Structure formats: C-alpha cells, structure tokens
Amino acid sequence: MESNYVQQFKKGTLEMLLLCLIAQKETYGYEIITALNDNSASVLGYAREGTIYPILYRLEASGLIHCRPAPAGLNGSSKKYYSLTEKGKELLPELIAFWHRYTVCVDGFIESYSAVPSHANVETEERTNVT
C-alpha cells in the first residue's frame, strides 16, 4: 500500500496534468482518463472517474476550463467536452515554469542526501523499482 505522502504528491500534480491534456485539444472525461492511464499509470496509478471528475469540476469552477455539453449520441448519452479558458491558458505556462523550478530544487536536496555515503544506494534502488 502506498504511503499517504506518495498519494499527496500524485494528487498535487493531477490538476496541472489535466490542464496539459486539455490544452492539447478539446477533450472529454473518458478520453482524459484513458490518456492518463496510457501514459502514466505505472507512476500515478490508474485514474478513476471518482478522482478525475471532481478535479475537472474544480478547474471549471475556478474558471480555468470551459465545459461544452455535446448532443446525445446514438446510445443516448451525452459528452461534456473540456477546453482551456483564457485564464487557464495564462496559468498553465506559469504552473509549468514553477514545476521546472520545483523539480530542480527538490532534485538538489535529493542529490545532497544521496551524497551521504550511508544513503548512496537509496536513489538507485528506488529508480530500479519504478521501471
């Protein structure tokens, strides 16, 4: 079972990941979930509707994405298509820039930790377990 710390890291990145996916093209929930699972399940775990849709609703309430309902298909179900708003388009590059600064900062601490002889194998072991 994953620690709560790992789960919090994952939750903290999902909003930015959703914005990145939605920025690529207008898309709907199932397509977003499929893209997350195809590209990141080995690290983030499998995305579920109960996790993704509340985030989409929060992003919409924050004015970062727009939801466009589409007419019902042959099976009677309708889709909600998501796209970035101007506010979302302005915020995403800021989040990405922060992410780059954040990872450099964190990597610096990890490198200094790994430089201590008694911790030298920790990073290698962790990377081996991820792949």
Provide the CATH superfamily. Answer: Winged helix-like DNA-binding domain superfamily/Winged helix DNA-binding domain
How is the CATH topology named?
Arc Repressor Mutant, subunit A
- Provide the number of structural domains: 1
Listing every helix as H and every strand as E from the N terminus to the C terminus, the arrangement reads HEHHEEHH
The amount of helix comes to 55-70%
Q: Point out poorly predicted stretches.
A: none
CATH top level class name: Mainly Alpha
Instruction: Tell me the structural class.
Output: mainly alpha
Largest sheet: 3 strands, antiparallel
The general outline is: elongated
Task: Tell how many strands the DSSP assignment holds.
Answer: 3
Assign the CATH architecture: Orthogonal Bundle
CA(first)-CA(last) distance: 18 Å
The rounded Rg comes to 18 Å
